């Protein structure tokens, strides 16, 4: 697991701007069920797999994926 269970259950905001993220898979954030804000602008994202944010469907309020390579 990428995240400790206690951290995963309590993490509300994640800022991942200006990284080299290329793909968001269906299980990238699956542990982060309390996530409300996810900022991933200015990366190299070309693909977001279906159901990538299914675990956050009831909590995620803000998702910023601007300035990526999505089409």
Question: Overview of this structure, please?
Answer:
- It is a single chain.
- With 71 residues, this protein is mainly β.
- The protein is built from 1 helix and 5 strands.
- The longest helix has 6 residues.
- The model has no long low-confidence stretch (mean pLDDT 94).
Give a brief outline of the structure.
With 71 residues, this protein is mainly beta.
Roughly how many Å apart are the termini?
Answer: 30 Å
In percent, how helical is the residue content? under 10%
Gross geometry? globular
Approximate strand percentage:
15-25%
Structural class: mainly beta
Summed over residues and divided by their number, the pLDDT gives a mean of 94
Low-confidence stretches: none
Taking Cα atoms only, what radius of gyration do you get, to the nearest Å?
12 Å
With strands numbered from the N-terminus, the spatial order across the biggest sheet is 1-3-5
Topology as a string of helices (H) and strands (E): HEEEEE
Number of helices: 1
Total count of strands: 5
Summarize the main sheet: 3 strands, parallel
């Amino acid at each position: 697991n990428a995240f400790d269970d206690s951290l995963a259950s309590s993490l509300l905001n994640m800022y991942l701007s200006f990284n080299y993220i290329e793909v968001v898979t269906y299980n990238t954030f699956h542990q982060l069920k309390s996530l409300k804000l996810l900022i991933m602008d200015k990366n190299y994202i070309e693909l977001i797999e279906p159901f990538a944010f299914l675990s956050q469907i009831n909590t995620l309020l803000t998702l910023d994926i601007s300035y990526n390579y999505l089409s």
